[in-house]
Amino acid sequence: VQLVESGGDLVQPGGSLRLTCAISDSTFSSYSMGWARRVPGKGLEWISGIYSDGSTYYGDSVKGRFTISRDNAKNTVYLQMNSLKPEDTAVYYCNTGGDWGQGTQVTVSS
Questions:
Q1: Fewer CB near the terminus (10 Å): N or C of the chain?
Q2: CA 71 to CA 1: how far, in whole Å?
Q3: Residue 104 in contact with residue 5, Cβ under 8 Å?
């Protein structure tokens, strides 16, 4: 399975971004998907996930600000990020099972 993230950018504090993860598998609808992020020098932080039934979870650091969703017709999962903070700066990765994307950089800075 190949995963390709996009949508990372430089944004000011309080701004919004939407990350996209495209998956190269026609059975995508049966997958649980997740987003994680890594800050240089720190460990991987799991921030959100969505199951095949559409149920979701969020890490405490993003709860109420980020929203995960999926479009099974497009084999795509999204992460809508609102009210961004400088501490959200990281490389964001899409994941399913043991497969990872290459990551997309999000930088929150004025």
A1: C
A2: 17
A3: yes
